[in-house]
Amino acid sequence: MIKLSKFSSIFIANWKLNGNIEFIEKYYQKLLANPKNCTVVCSPNIYLNRLKNNNINLFSGAQDVSLYNEGAYTGEISANMLNDEKIDFCLVGHSERRQYFNESNKTIKIKTSNLINNNIIPVICIGETLEEKEKKLTKKVLDKQINESIPIESNFENSIIAYEPIWAIGTGLTPSLEEIEEVHSFIKTKNIRFNKFKVLYGGSIKASNSKNINNLPNVDGCLIGGSSLKVDEFNSIIS
Ligand code: PGA
């Protein structure tokens, strides 16, 4: 398993359902991973092994994993298979999976355990809707997601938390710096066991806002969707 504690910042590209061979070849020719940080590219599974892993501290990540380890589950890919292909990271519980594929905290917890058991670092995504934010329920919602989706075996060395407000994903909107810092500090202090966890921020990260967000004391890196598809922009974020 990758030693997370040696990195001060972690940047994860989430390509979602985007990319093709031509795109990938051009992308990896231009990608300039900063060796001081940890950079992860979460491409669609079929392309995971196309990452030119000749760059120090540049890793491949999956965007999801099966709930099951093996058996009659057509179309699924298990944590064990990802491990077999030397994949080091995997997103779990992204809001698009929660929303469009009915993922619950319970299934996210099982997937997270399966990944840890296979030496893959789960990046557990949590976040509130706009309605919840407006009703001042953010902390309550996050508290429930954390309590119900993070298994007891998760710790700062084998798991990452990503805070992604749902209303900020793909919208160009972000919380204020104060709001991000307050939420990250809440996540780390709500229970002593989360104190040393790496907590990433995600949602409309761009080259123009990433530096200020990443410089916040309790932000340990970013999860980047749309902007990670533009290699120059992503290079500038991770530099
Ligand atoms: P975005 O997506 O950067 O396009 O807002 C982030 C994500 O969904 O992980």
Number of helical stretches of at least 4 residues = 9
Rg calculated over all Cα atoms: 17 Å
Bound molecules: 2-phosphoglycolic acid
**Overall body shape:** globular
Task: Characterize the largest beta sheet: strand count, sense, and whether it forms a barrel.
Answer: 8 strands, parallel, barrel
Distance between the termini: 24 Å
Secondary structure layout plus pairing:
Layout: E1 10-14, H1 21-30, E2 38-42, E3 58-62, H2 79-84, E4 89-92, H3 95-100, H4 105-117, E5 121-126, H5 130-134, H6 138-149, E6 160-163, H7 177-189, E7 198-202, H8 207-214, E8 221-224, H9 231-238
Parallel strand pairs: 1-2, 1-8, 2-3, 3-4, 4-5, 5-6, 6-7, 7-8
Helix pairs in contact: 4-6, 8-9
The structure holds 2-phosphoglycolic acid (PGA).
Description of the molecule:
Strand 3 (58-62), helix 2 (79-84) and strand 4 (89-92) form a beta-alpha-beta unit. It contains 9 helices and 8 strands. The protein has an 8-stranded parallel beta barrel with strand order 1-2-3-4-5-6-7-8, surrounded by 5 helices. The longest helix has 13 residues, at 105-117. It starts with 9 loop residues before the first strand and ends with a helix. With 239 residues, it is α/β, with parallel strands linked by helices. The structure holds 2-phosphoglycolic acid. 2-phosphoglycolic acid (PGA) is lined by residues 14, 164, 169-170, 202-205, 223-227. 2-phosphoglycolic acid binds next to strand 8.
Can you describe this structure in just a few lines?
With 239 residues, the protein is α/β, with parallel strands linked by helices. It has helices spanning 21-30, 79-84, 95-100, 105-117, 130-134, 138-149, 177-189, 207-214, 231-238, and strands spanning 10-14, 38-42, 58-62, 89-92, 121-126, 160-163, 198-202, 221-224. Helix 4 packs across helix 6 and helix 8 packs parallel to helix 9.
